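--- STAGE predict ---
source: upstream dedup step, 1 unique chain passed
mode: sequence only
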Amino acid sequence: MISTAEGTDLERSISKNQGGHTRKFRRTSSWTLSALFLAPSAVFIVLFLFLPVAEAFRLSFFDWNGLSATMNFVGLETFIDTWTDLRLLSSLWLTVVWWVLHVVLAIGGGLFLAVLLANLRWGRGLFRTLTFLPHVLSLSVVGVIWAQLYDPGIGVLNQVLNGVGLSALTRAWLGDPQTALVAVAVTSAWQAFGFYMVIYLAAIQNIDPGLYEAARVDGASAIQQFRHITLPSLHNATTVVLILGFISALKGFGSVWAMTQGGPGTSTELISVYLYRQAFQYGEVSRAAAGGLTLGFLVIILTVLFNRWRDRRSEA
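--- STAGE serialize ---
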């Protein structure tokens, strides 16, 4: 015979074991369900990210033109030739200039428009749609449209300059090495500033209106409110926008190729255009792979440095 106390202890022990098995089953089921949901993304990342990077790393140790059936192993020679190529260094410098222009024109324009739309009394939805519309257009379409605007003979820009008596400023904007990069950067900025405007506008609308009311009571001007309230409150949004702008600068291939194809000469040959030419025009697939890997390592290093700088500034 089992006493009442012993029976109670036995029931508790059985209940505890059953509860432990139940929690373990639920934990296992949760991990299984999570794995099933993550599996498609994991397969996609492996197939279209890790495997191409691994293949580029393998090709960088060979001398291959992309067509021949044989590949000659050259070791680090391809990396050495790539790193000592002055044209690669020039394309990297042009990419930096492109990024600065993109930050000033596209991100600055997006912030300016966001501030204006945030203070607009009526028609905010309409103007938001109109300013975002260029972002949904194809880069090729935008490039063709702006190439016509820049045309030295029939382009609207030169006609406007002639009409206002500034004929001395007219030129072949895309044919002049001194103006081609800026002209293409303006086009890219026009296509992108609507996207940054949306990000900044969402951040501005989350700022406490009471801060502005208190500032107005204290006699702060609109510029002072923007400097001491709006800008500090947009710190996180600006971080995201700068990262996106940096990525966009590395993807400037579409606008450049549609308008100048890297010319005149190499005045608009960004790193993406340089790699494309090496692989598909000159048949230097291995050099293009080495250059792409070099660019990838630089992006990782710059991203880590930027994140550390952002974290230190946030802690200060």
